[in-house]
Amino acid sequence: YHQVYGICFNDKNEILICKSKEDGPWQIAGGHPEGDETIEETLIREYLEEVDAKVKNTQLLGAQLTYPISNPERKGYQIRCICEVQELLPQTQDPASGNTWIRKFVPMEDVTKYVQWQVTGDAMFSYAIELWKKTH
Taking Cα atoms as reference points, which of 38, 37, 20 lies closest to residue 29? Predict the structure, then answer.
């Protein structure tokens, strides 16, 4: 399996976070490629489906090989990118879950207060913010 997730910034140096239901955890949008989708195509589709946002300027942040404890044979790559919000659209239901995702922007320095992915997540967000600052 492979996952593609994006850390999506706006022009106010905020990151778009989301959750699929009110009592769910905050996260960033993303998911699995469909068919022969590229990383960028997957990210564009997932942001539209989950949070009704058009994104642009995708840059690869990195990848890690994971081995699920429950099924080590099912190893795969988690791809992480940064991107920019091009346009926020009126919210609709996610075709996969039927839920309308909750979305909001948070200051980039505060993202790990919401998206709590421990050491790996903290490092990912730190690197994403560093790359964003270098390129903007």
Answer: 20
